[in-house]
């Protein structure tokens, strides 16, 4: 049996008729930029994530950069970002004219470490990036408490957390502003690039929409210099179709994860992720730790089982951030990036394939 890490063609075939019709309608109406399909998705997605406003943009990195710009922080503010994430979380900070400061992540669920965050706050700190990594929400009550104590803004990076919940509230608009990616491999993925910004602030939403549209609301009435970052009509229509199926696909991911957690719990050399009782973890990724990670990955590949690594190099250790001199800090993230392995997960995995995977991986540890 071959087990793919991700199977987007399988997913497409599940909803082929709906997708094909949506694409045909957009083309027939030549609604490629702006228009009703974008507005419909923005309305649908804001309802889904329980936010008042949604602004579609070109990709998840743009969403973060525009969100940061809209907050109008003092120049060269410090924004704290967890050390285990994709580079977008950090580069959005520096490309917006601010300074990224890394803190550690929690070794149990891989979201931002609250004690490490506290240790990094200075008088220059103006915001914190709450990365809901792998689909697990951050401890938002603690982050909101810290933000209140130090007058900080909370930017939610939800690129891997579509539909994730913190104590029953969906992530995105729990903090000041949230950013989503619709990269094809996400739990809610487009057939190209796409992103969105969500917030409960009308002022922030308007500012984001203007930044993303050359500094304007009305055509040719440019109030300031912005940029060009738009979610196109084709991607919006595709996302509207897929959004209707997202909860079912999330349930499938949780079912696979529950099977992993139950049937791999006694494998002593495999460290499984933990799910907090207050969290709805949507399992964009199911990440384990193994001291012989590379050998395990090769072994599984020899059995036609695909895996991934998220992420092989902690952000402070990337050459891009050597100037910060945080690569040698005593972070869990710095020490354990060589052990992380992402197991296959998704709606393409049925009971037979999940059982086959577990039965295949166990002999490696004997």
Summarize the structure.
This protein has 366 residues and is of the alpha/beta class. It contains 13 helices and 12 strands.
Structure write-up:
This protein is of the alpha/beta class. It is 37% helix and 14% strand. β4, α7 and β5 form a beta-alpha-beta unit. α3 packs parallel to α9, α4 packs across α8 and α10 packs parallel to α13. The model has no long low-confidence stretch (mean pLDDT 98).
Structural features:
single chain, alpha/beta, 37% helix, 366 residues, 13 helices, three-stranded antiparallel beta sheet
Q: What is the mean predicted local confidence, pLDDT?
A: 98
Return Rg in Å. Answer: 21 Å
Kindly report how far apart the N and C termini lie: 22 Å
Beta-strand fraction estimate: 5-15%
- Give the low-confidence spans: none
The helicity comes to 25-40%
Q: Count the helices. How many? A: 13
Query: Order of helices and strands, N to C?
Result: HHHEHEHEHEHEEEEEHHHEEHHEH
Which strand order does the major sheet show? 1-9-8-5-4-2-3
Summarize the SSE layout with pairings:
Elements: H1 8-14, H2 16-29, H3 36-48, E1 53-57, H4 60-70, E2 78-82, H5 88-94, E3 99-103, H6 114-120, E4 125-131, H7 140-150, E5 153-157, E6 165-166, E7 169-170, E8 177-181, E9 195-199, H8 202-212, H9 233-243, H10 246-263, E10 279-280, E11 286-289, H11 293-302, H12 332-336, E12 340-343, H13 351-361
Parallel strand pairs: 2-3, 2-4, 4-5, 5-8
Antiparallel strand pairs: 1-9, 6-7, 6-10, 8-9, 11-12
Helix pairs in contact: 2-9, 3-9, 4-5, 4-8, 10-13
């Amino acid at each position: 049996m071959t087990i793919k890490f991700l199977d987007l063609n399988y997913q497409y075939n599940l909803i082929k008729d709906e997708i094909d019709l949506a694409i045909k309608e957009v083309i027939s109406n030549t609604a490629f930029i702006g228009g009703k399909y974008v507005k419909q998705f923005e309305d649908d997605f804001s309802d889904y994530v329980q936010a008042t406003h949604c602004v579609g943009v070109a990709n998840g990195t743009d969403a973060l950069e525009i969100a940061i710009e809209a907050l109008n922080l003092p120049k060269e503010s410090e924004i704290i970002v967890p050390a285990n994430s994709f580079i977008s979380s950090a580069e959005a900070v520096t490309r917006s004219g601010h300074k990224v400061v890394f803190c550690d992540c929690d070794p149990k669920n891989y979201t931002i470490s609250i004690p490490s965050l506290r240790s990094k706050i200075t008088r220059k700190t103006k915001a914190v990036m709450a990365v809901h990594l792998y689909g697990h929400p951050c401890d938002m009550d603690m982050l909101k408490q810290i933000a209140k104590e130090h007058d900080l803004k909370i930017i939610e990076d939800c690129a891997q957390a579509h539909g994730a919940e913190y104590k029953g509230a969906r992530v995105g608009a729990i903090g000041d502003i949230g950013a989503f990616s619709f990269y094809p491999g996400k739990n809610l993925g487009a057939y190209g690039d796409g992103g969105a910004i969500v917030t409960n602030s009308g002022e922030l939403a308007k500012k984001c929409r203007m930044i993303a549209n050359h500094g304007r609301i009305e055509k040719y009435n440019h109030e300031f210099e912005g940029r060009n970052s738009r979610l196109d009509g084709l991607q919006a229509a595709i996302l509207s179709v897929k959004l209707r199926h997202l909860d079912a696909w999330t349930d499938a991911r949780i079912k696979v994860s529950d099977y992993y957690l139950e049937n791999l719990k006694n494998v002593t050399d495999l460290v499984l992720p933990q799910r907090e009782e207050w969290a709805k973890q949507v399992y964009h990724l199911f990440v384990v730790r193994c001291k012989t990670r590379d050998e395990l990955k090769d072994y599984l590949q020899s059995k036609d089982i695909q895996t991934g690594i998220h992420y092989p190099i902690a952000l402070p250790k990337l050459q891009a951030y050597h100037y910060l001199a945080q690569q040698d800090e005593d972070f869990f993230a710095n020490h354990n990036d060589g052990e992380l392995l992402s197991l296959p997960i998704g709606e393409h995995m049925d009971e037979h394939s999940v059982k086959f995977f577990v039965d295949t991986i166990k002999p490696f540890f004997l």
